[in-house]
Q: What sequence folds into this?
């Protein structure tokens, strides 16, 4: 495939995926989406399948269920039907069936503790230990009102493979274009500790006001949502980030009075473990909350 064609198709596929994530709580109209992108439905489905390896409907279903799995834990004052509706399901029975097929438990069983076994199996299947020397319970959240942030990004179709190479590409672009003021941000649409990490949508972003013309030529862009977030500061090594996110979702949120929303969480890197030989990180982690 010609380089320009590949870049064009990647942009189309990313636009489709972005649309899905930002409209996951409503009925997604494929006809409307194809009109917005000014391409045929056939071409839209073909491009998406070539870039992501699965069809649009499979992706919509998977994303809806991932959102539901997190909201069932964090939105404990919402009924199962209310959670299903938040994730675009109009039928209670179809939601129950789809959820059981995906997570091997009913939504009620999931809420009552089945999520712990499932989450640990995700990490262990990826050779990630659930043990850590860090006592996360001592970490205090700060509640912050975050602005909308414009970012340029590369989407990586795995949390396990090629993440380091993805960050190296972004960093090379920063150095080549002598960008001085920037932030590196990882956008996490789903809770990675209940998602197949080999098929996870990991999005590496640059936030900057510099060199916009150069960055726009090479990278697609989107806006990270504004709103109220719980902010956690953490330093550590490599895999501690996933263990920490597991604690935030499955301990801190479950035991707090807060609920989360369908907005993605994100990591702002002060030190990026993928870009140093010591595998050390210094991050601020943000998760969308409501009370």
A:
């Amino acid at each position: 495939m010609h380089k320009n064609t590949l870049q064009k198709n990647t942009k189309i596929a990313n636009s489709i995926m972005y649309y899905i994530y930002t409209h996951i709580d409503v009925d997604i109209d494929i006809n409307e989406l194809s009109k917005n992108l000014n391409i045929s439905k056939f071409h839209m489905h073909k491009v998406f399948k070539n870039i992501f390896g699965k069809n649009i409907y499979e992706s919509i279903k998977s994303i809806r269920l991932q959102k539901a799995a997190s909201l069932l834990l964090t939105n404990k004052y919402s009924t199962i039907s209310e959670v299903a509706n938040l994730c675009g399901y109009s039928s209670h029975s179809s939601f129950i069936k789809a959820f059981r097929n995906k997570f091997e438990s009913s939504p009620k069983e999931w809420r009552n503790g089945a999520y712990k076994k499932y989450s640990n199996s995700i990490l262990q299947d990826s050779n990630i230990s659930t043990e850590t020397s860090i006592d996360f319970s001592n970490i205090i959240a700060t509640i912050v009102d975050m602005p909308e942030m414009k970012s340029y990004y590369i989407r990586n179709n795995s949390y396990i493979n090629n993440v380091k190479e993805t960050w190296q590409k972004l960093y090379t672009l920063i150095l080549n274009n002598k960008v001085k003021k920037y932030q590196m941000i990882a956008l996490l649409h789903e809770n990675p500790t209940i998602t197949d990490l080999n098929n996870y949508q990991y999005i590496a972003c640059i936030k900057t006001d510099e060199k916009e013309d150069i960055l726009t030529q090479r990278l697609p862009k989107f806006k990270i949502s504004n709103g109220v977030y719980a902010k956690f500061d953490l330093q550590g090594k490599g895999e501690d980030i996933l263990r920490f996110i597991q604690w935030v979702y499955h301990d801190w949120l479950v035991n707090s009075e807060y609920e989360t929303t369908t907005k993605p969480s994100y990591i702002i890197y002060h030190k990026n473990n993928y870009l140093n030989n010591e595998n050390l990180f210094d991050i601020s982690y943000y998760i969308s909350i409501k009370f």
User: Anything to note?
Assistant: The longest strand covers residues 227-237.
